Amino acid sequence: MLENLFQVVLFFSLGYFSRRFKILEEETSYYLIKFIIYISFPALVIYNVYHLEFTVNLLFMIVAGWIVILSSILLSFIVGKILKLNKPTLATFIMMSTFGNTSFLGFPFIMAFLGEENLKYAVIFDQMASFLPVSLLSGFILAYGSGKSKGIDIRKVIIFPPFIALITGFLMVALIKLPDFVLLSFKQLGMTVIPLALFSVGMNLKFSGVFNNLKNVSFVILIKMLLVPVLFLLILKMFVSDLNIIWKVALIEISMPPMVLASILVINEKLDKDLAVSSVGVGIIISFITVPFIYYLSQVV
What's the domain range around 248? Predict the structure, then answer.
């Protein structure tokens, strides 16, 4: 576990210092992210879906992920109202407190704590209980913050490459048997997701605006990375005496810091950019403490 966690910190730090010392231009991360989203991430999705065995627990995991998302929206809305946030800031607060970085950071943490063989469950959680909710619900949250009337852009969901890969993977399982050399190629491409994703996120990390938004950022981190995961763990323990690997994957994914994509959506709507960017930056750093803590808690509670 320590070896894999070291890799998480190493890849992330290399990205940050590469930009900080101008070894690579900041826009390099844009091309790395494009490669991840359009090539290596879809390959990883297809490979893992091909080896996936659907169970009742997997369905429960997806449903639980949705319940956590909806509960987080309600909780962060109430806290935001108590903090007397204006609408643009409140919508940003809800976005950052609700949606987590379940792929770019979630996958490395899953590898670190649970091993590469359990990435297949993380892929399903990321697509069905993270990407799908942010695609379907963010329009309403952003519309509330901007005062615009906006529906769900189903087209964006359908044409998102990892989502296409998810459907393709299921079709392949049902219709054809892929040769081992094809699956190996998908696996090798998929293995680039973790280092490139962490490197890219590290390159994008900035701390501008953190001190001006310290109170709001602190509440975002508290809700997203401590309160919600701990409540989820306690509720799980009430119904499940011994957590199986699927529930452990769900717990780690729910413990992830604020989603990079969510911050991009906030910036695109011209809401509270500083709060969004600061939440992502601080969340990534804090995750190296809180995620191991949550995982340790799941072992001893």
Answer: 2-300
